[in-house]
Amino acid sequence: MLCFLRGMAFVPFLLVTWSSAAFIISYVVAVLSGHVNPFLPYISDTGTTPPESGIFGFMINFSAFLGAATMYTRYKIVEKQNQTCYFSTPVFNLVSLVLGLVGCIGMGIVANFQGVTLRISTEINGDI
């Protein structure tokens, strides 16, 4: 168990770094392509049209994976701490793991279903 946790501190660091890079890179590509106004665009606008939508989707999917890995690592750390001294109720630890994983799944859904794509398909089908 301890060999699994050894050296896992890079995962949250990589999560924050990669997620920040996802927003910055998709912003830069959107501005250079002329798809958004360079002064304070919405984050969702910087990842809606190709090519930045593909970059944004890929990078946020990997961020969701890193978030799930971070949540699982946190779960195992708290579980190990509970073996030596009472740190937290195991039920709360499990609930936090489940909520974190649900959030990561939601982040993957947001990355794969951009707003412009959905609006165009509903306009074609006449659902508006």
TrEMBL record:
Keyword Transmembrane: yes
Membrane spanning residue stretches: 12-34, 54-73, 85-111
Database matches in InterPro entries: CWH43_N, DRAM/TMEM150_Autophagy_Mod
Main location: membrane
BP terms from Gene Ontology: regulation of autophagy
GO cellular component, one term: endomembrane system
Subcellular location: Endomembrane system
Residues annotated as domain CWH43-like N-terminal: 8-115
Keywords annotated in UniProt: Membrane, Transmembrane, Transmembrane helix
Membrane topology listed for this record: Multi-pass membrane protein
Similarity comment: family membership: Belongs to the DRAM/TMEM150 family.
Identification of the protein by name: DNA damage regulated autophagy modulator 1
Native organism: Propithecus coquereli (Coquerel's sifaka)
UniProt gene name: DRAM1
